[in-house]
Amino acid sequence: MKRLCSALIVTGMLLFAGLQFVGSALADDASKRPRNVVLILIDDMGYGDVAAHGNPVLKTPSFDRLHRTSAHFTNFAVSPSCAPTRAALLTGRHEFKSSVTHTILPMRNMDLNATTIAQLFQQKGFATGLFGKWHLGQAGKRGPWFRGFDETLTVAKDSQGGHFDPTLLKNRVKTKFKGYRTDILFNEAMAFMERNREKPFFCYLPTYTPHAPLKVAPNYSKPYEGREGVNAKFSGMVANVDENIGRLLDRLAKLKLESDTLVIVISDNGGTFGVDTWNAGMRGTKGSVWRGGTRAVSFWRWGDRFPAGPRPQMTGHVDVFATLADLFRLDVSKPLAQQLDGDSLQPLLEDAQAVMDEDRMQVHHRGRWNKPANWQRHKYTYCCVRWKNFQLVRIETCDHANCTTCKKIRQRTIGRNGAVRTYYSRNIKHARMTKRGEWELYDFTNDPFQEHNLADEKPEIVKKMTSHYEGWWKDVSPVLADPAN
Ligand SMILES: [Zn+2]
Fold it and tell me: 111 and 250, same structural domain?
């Protein structure tokens, strides 16, 4: 396993060699690989919004069922917000390399030269379907129908839209639906699986909930009403997603596809309206790089083939591409392999004790400068480096008087007109900034709320991680200076 691990490490050349090695190790025995994959991305749900993760209020029987039966990554991070996570998830490289730095246009338009995992599945002969939120641009050639998906069901103009009785683009044709959008997406995705049950499929199901607008049928929110610090509507939306995941798992079993299908459930950023109920003790919300803003749900189940249980090793959304390429023997060209930032997690899926590369680090940056030209002065506005159980953090606003981005960050940190409240939480500490000009270092296994700065105690680690950040910034700078969007 170690050999496999080390073969998969880091750079493109090695990664490419690693993929070849895995191929020969499995001797192309199809029974040793899953045939299909369902990738579910939950919009605006945090790590803490799951009963099995310690949430004392929410009832999440389906997530708990996944927790019991799947390999789950407990130190799995995504980008601080929506579109950036989608870009990194689908391309296997940091979102900035695909020119995605924000959730609004034009900064969420993903570079047309980026290769999506859906394209690789399509080239391999899989039926591919997207049912839900694309959010990486839709104008010109940017729609998901040009980026690897045979079938699509999404919102026109790539917007968020409403949750009830939606008009959706079904294979690019405006189609009216009745009911709750999340239910509709799951229904259509399950019909797709059933239609394609005889051939391999890749089903990507990114929900629009529990993202705002916070609306759901009262039977879901009612059990949570009147409870101190609990957002009943948000909680009800989580309950609805949970119910739909349960329906999907049951349908896979009924179709006898359970042992052939890899089911992955990931959330797209840290906690939002649920953090005051329970954020697993972490500082930060969506939009921040504190651990509570980037740690995500990550369940992987392939029948009973992967040993159930936690995988505490450092992992993240950029690893999904390489993992799927590895598991499904997708054809990754040498130039594409060289662009990847993630590693295959197959060793960890098969063996909870497997060791990943000791030196791997991952960088997160909030981005969200108000227009592409303003990238340079936001080098240290909300960024972090992860390495093992350490997180190096720097959060400082630019000095520009007219920067709306930084003005908003400051307001949420110090409060406005005496009101101390971040957007998602009443706890102002979630939006704390770091001391100007300095990095802070945290060991989140011993200090989940990130209160004890270890920078002075561990200068060597700070130096090592800072140097990684500087190298990363240099690496992404040419794209930021001349974005494809
Ligand atoms: Zn600024």
Answer: yes
Place of tokens 């989140």: 444
- Ligand 1 centroid to 284 CA: how many Å? 20
Distance (angstroms) between ligand 1 centre and the Cα of 209 equals 30
Query: Residue 403 Cα, ligand 1 centroid: separation in angstroms?
Result: 5
- For the chain, how big is the Rg over CA atoms in Å? 21
C-alpha distance from residue 430 to each of 78, 83, 476 (Å):
18, 22, 28
> Do residue 131 and residue 268 come from a single domain?
yes
Using the mean position of ligand 1's atoms as its centre, give its distance from the Cα of residue 51 in Å: 38
Residues 368 and 233 in one domain: no
Q: Which domain covers residue 436, as residue numbers?
A: 362-481
In a domain, 24, yes or no: no
Q: Residue 293 Cα, ligand 1 centroid: separation in angstroms?
A: 20
Ligand 1 center to residue 424 CA distance, Å?
A: 21
pLDDT one-digit tens code per residue, 306-318:
999 999 999 999 9
Question: pTM value?
Answer: 0.93
**Angle 352-357-363 from CA coordinates, rounded to 5°:** 105
Q: How far is the CA of 372 from the centre of ligand 1 (A)?
A: 12
Three-state helix/strand/coil letters over 189-246: HHHHHHHCCCCCEEEEEECCCCCCCCCCCHHHHHHHCCCCCCCHHHHHHHHHHHHHHH
What total number of domains does the chain contain? 2
Evaluate whether residue 23 is within a structural domain.
Answer: no
Query: Based on the domain organization, do 344 and 219 belong to the same domain?
Result: yes
Domain boundary among 309, 324, 350: 350
Instruction: Give how far the C-alpha of residue 323 lies from the chain's centroid of Cα atoms, to the nearest Å.
Output: 14
Centroid of ligand 1 to alpha carbon of 477 (angstroms): 17
Mean pLDDT of successive 10-residue stretches along the chain, which has 485 residues? 36 42 49 92 98 98 98 97 96 96 92 97 98 96 97 95 97 98 98 97 98 97 95 98 98 96 97 95 94 97 96 97 97 96 97 94 94 93 95 93 85 65 82 93 96 98 98 96 88
Distance 42 CA to ligand 1 centre (A): 30
Tell me whether residue 27 is in a domain: no
Task: Give the domain CATH number at 458.
Answer: 3.30.1120.10
**Centre of ligand 1 from the C-alpha of residue 402, in Å:** 8
Q: 365-400 pLDDT, tens per residue?
A: 999 998 899 999 999 999 999 999 999 999 999 988
Both 302 and 326 in one domain: the answer is yes
